[in-house]
Amino acid sequence: MSASPALLEVQALTRRFSGVLAVNDFSCALFPGEILGLIGPNGAGKSTIFNLISGVLRPHGGQVRLRGERIDGLRPDRIARRGLVRTFQHGSLLLRLSVRDNVLLGATMAARGARDRQRVAEATLDLFGLQEVAGEPGGSLPHGIQRLVGMAVACAAGPDLLCLDEPLTGLNHIEISRVLATIRDLRDRLRVSVLFVEHNMRAVMSLCDRIVVISQGTRLADGTPREISRDPLVIEAYLGTTE
Amino acid sequence: MRRDRFADLITVLIAAFGLFIVMFGGKPYLTQAVIWTALDIALAISLRFMLLVGEVNLGIGAFFGFGAYTAALLSLRLGVPTPAAILAAGAVACVASVPFGYLTLRVSGHYFMLVSFALTEIARLVYTKSSLLGGNSGLVGIVPDLAGFPYLVLGICASVFAALVALERSHLGRIFAAISENADIVRAVGIPVAAVKLLCLAISSFTAGLAGASFAFTNTVIAPGDFGFLLPVFALAYVKIGGDGHPLGAVLGAVTLAVLSQLVIGLGAEDTLLYGTAIVLTMLFMPRGIVGLLLRPSRRRPTGQRPT
Amino acid sequence: MSGVNLTSQLLINGLQIGAVYVVFALGLTLIFGVMRIINFAHGEFFTLAGLSIATAVPALAAASGWANWICYLLCFVLVMAGMAIFGGVMFKLVFERFARDPVGALIVSLGLSMLLQSLFGLGFGTAPRKVPALLPGITVLAGGRISNDRLIVFVVAVALTAGLGLLLKRTRLGMALRAVAEDREAALLQGIDDRRTMLAGFMIGGLLAAIAGGLIAPTTVLTPIIGADYLTKAFIIIILGGAGSVVGAILGGFVVGFIESFAGFFFDSTFALMLLLALVSLVLLVRPQGLMGHATR
User: Beta strands of chain B (E only): which ranges?
Assistant: First the structure.
């Protein structure tokens, strides 16, 4: 565990929907250079927590801090400008725009001027291996490539923390490998920290430095993949299902 | 891409043809027809500009009207020279749109549509009650103070058209297209969507104001009835019937409806029946408009795949 | 004249005007709830029903010699049946394909509105019409006077609103409507047929507008363009109350009724509209989801 102060700190996060407590006193931390996985059974509240952190929803209690500054309650675009950029499970790229235009859009706020924007976009396309499809409209690409484009768009915005919303859903093995390799690349080469929500246990176990397990809106366990795979509470929560 | 370029060429040709008629046509009736159509095109392209962010600005009637009345008052009461009056009118319409847009565009949902409709209607009613603005009878004697005024109007309309198309094809236009398809992604990369929409409204209102001011000097007479809710509906008709996929659509729509409405008047029927029917039929059977029929639907937006 | 004071009178006027607005706005908000669109031709349902009744009743009375109110009731039922069919046809022909496409629905309904207004002018003529009083006379009540016809309108409007509330809460159709409005995917998962539910919602919505038009026919002069005026007010109502909210439409309707009554008396109707616009601006600034709407975050 790194000794440097946390990049993202979540404290006692709470959220209700029509009186029902969906997220209940949830806390966790993410350190610079980490890949942190958020896992849990269906309906545990992972998506809600994700939306609370990224500003799509307002917390009813608790705090979220990015580099020590509070971001809870801020609008999503303001949070993004501070360095936390997220993707969406359904639709993280613009289908009617070309891949290049998608990435250029992503680079808008991070770049200074048109030339810089071009440079960032080309570099991002290069990093993700998307040069060949750069001219194609997003909607015409296979699912796995679309996911990569979505990540590229988010990356072009120059985040310190990239939040991925179920990036592997619906992908085949080859596509999954490519996405996982790209995430590792982002962390190693660009020093982007990554937080992601996923159901694919094998991928989570192989990729993450740390895992936080959520159950019924609250944190159940927090540790390395090895620790988590041995935690009796976790095993019970999942009823022994590991992929 | 090829077809977009082709459409651009047609647009320029039509503009040149219009200019030719004004320069050499001889009959004042023809010149007037071209000027009216040019103003309609300016109105349509302004409305279309906001459609790029996915908003239907029914308030364009109000901003057109603000432009017209501002120019009229500046010219009649303060003797401001015509070009300055027109420019100032555009600025007034633009500034007026900002608080309105601030309130209505940051809210998700259809409030912008509804309130903009109400704005146009209520503005019209306010004109009828205002003695400064001439009440129900409006203002008369708004005469341009320079020779060759028709050329100024054509110049204004052409500049408005060119500027809006240039913006559409710039990075800003890329952002507009993204917002209209999926604003969540745009927010997620840090772009302040509401502010961008507001910018779009401000620009669109500025050009609508310029068009309104030009209308005031062209018509020399303005009255509240000119700026009611029919105005945005006509503008919408031009855009939709011409086709909103390419700026040429605004031109084709305005020209087509100008021609059709002449025929309709000849038959003794009403304008609103024509426009209403045309809109409904187009939406049901020809949603991409005339331009959509001429060009195969382009999978790319005009901002295209080449780096700007 | 004893028993009448200004405030009570204005309150009563506001209640009565408001009740009609409520019925009209409920129709609009119901359609928005199930289809997520604003129907700009909503006012035309109102106008068509009102003009039809205003034309049919005097004609029937003259032809048959029956009392006004009998003719009115007969025509009312017939016209409303016709309007229900009209609503169904409009849905199938025009609106169904624009469900969940607010911009498309806006444009097509605007065109439809112009088309219909034009046809009304041609069909009914532009001369204003009105049904002669059904129950001539005035009732004095709670410190104000109200014509008997307007009292009936108020009572019927309130009953209708209550009936709609019962429909939504207690019947299967009502629950389907609410389910689709709340969460369409979840409703589909529960096996609710969203196409048929939208059809029902649209027809009921249009019928509410028609009923409002039919109700005011004996009390107000009707022209082919009266729908637009009501439409503007309905927009204000649903912004104030929250789009899609039934309670919001009720609250908003009465607020607008009261403001119109008071501001209209002390100033004039244009001022009342400007005041309403200012109120809308305030709401958008401070509580954009409306009085009863859900916060979006």
Answer: 139-140, 221-222
